[in-house]
Amino acid sequence: MSGVWTAMGLLAAVATTSLAASPAPKPSVAHAPFGRAGNEAVELYTLTNAHGVEVQVMTYGATLVSIKTPDRTGRLANIILGFDTLQPYLAGVPYFGATVGRYANRIANARFTLDGKQYELSRNDGPNSLHGGSRGFDKRIWQVEPSPGKSAATLRMKYVSAAGEEGYPGELTAHVSYRLSDDDRLVIEYSATTTAATPVNLANHAYFNLTGDPHQTILGHVLTIDASRFTPVNSTLIPLGELRPVAGTPFDFRTPMAIGSRIAADDEQLRLGHGYDHNWVLEPAAGHEVRLAAVLTDPTSGRSLEIRTTQPGLQFYSGNFLDGKPAGHGTVFPYRTGLCLETQHFPDSPNQPAFPDTILRPGQRYSATTVLRFSVQK
Ligand code: BGC
């Protein structure tokens, strides 16, 4: 691939090349109306970097609508599942690209006890609460705020979640920002403050399909997860509390493995998850540094995605509930045509004292960073 090498691209030149297309546009942010959710206007923001990588985000759910990156021939395509109109999102899609909160993932029996008081949450997944309940942060309109710095295309958004919303205590003020840099990184930063102690777990729920063709399955994608343990689950996908070694199991992705190579293995955890739908335990980096969590590559297009994060967990979900049945708006999501790599805290942490703490208290600031880096393999 011809074009300009970035400093970071050169550092990573062993296995991948940076994404370069010509002519080079300046980093920019543009926006346009994207429709209405009830009485509220929804805006679509488009971030573009100097290589032509393009990221679209809408204010409904602070949702990643599309990420366009080139394949090894330079052809741009969207690598996440999404729609070019608002309507299908309003009709109900399983969290495509959304910012999920107040608590990403499941809380067992939709309840937890904090400082001696029991809280009942909205129950929207069998007995459990999933991704913040019936109307989580993915179904709220986020306000766009001015973003500091001009060196990269940046979008900063805010959502104030009322005390008691979906059963959670305290008014939570949450921010998420998306920054697309010229070295082909999308930096996602989360922060939050609260008026009363509350669990917080914010994550992005993009479904990746690096082929750029949402009709192809992701089973040929090759995945590496830098984790030696995972959290096995029960039949409602709540962790048992154990940190189980991946060695000798289909959950060992410490070396690159095709997702489809072991997904049908005779394994109790794969049966319970209907495939992969589990949290991997990331060893913490020094300080509050972003550390390598996963690398996903698609051998056919050459596209590669590296994920770094400050978070302690990575939920790898292989799109098992994309079942090929028509959704409310007539669209069909064929089986396993997208996969999620959600950097977050462990599921059900408010009920699992041995898991890393997810309680935010007044005077404290929640913060988390995840970095997606896009490149191509020759
Ligand atoms: C969960 C899946 C769930 C999906 C969509 C993922 O984060 O792990 O179990 O089906 O979200 O709701």
Write a concise synopsis of the structure shown:
The termini are close together. The longest helix is centred in the first third of the chain and has 6 residues. By secondary structure, the chain is mostly beta strands.
Task: List the SSEs and their pairings.
Layout: H1 7-11, E1 28-37, E2 40-48, E3 54-58, E4 63-70, E5 76-78, H2 87-92, E6 99-100, E7 106-107, E8 111-114, E9 117-120, E10 129-130, E11 143-145, E12 153-161, E13 172-180, E14 185-194, E15 198-199, E16 203-204, E17 207-208, E18 222-225, E19 229-231, E20 244-245, E21 257-258, H3 268-273, E22 277-281, E23 291-297, E24 303-309, E25 313-317, E26 339-344, E27 359-360, E28 366-376
Antiparallel strand pairs: 1-2, 2-3, 3-4, 4-5, 6-16, 7-10, 8-9, 11-12, 12-13, 13-14, 14-28, 15-27, 17-26, 18-21, 18-23, 19-20, 19-22, 22-25, 23-24, 24-28, 25-26
The structure holds beta-D-glucopyranose (BGC).
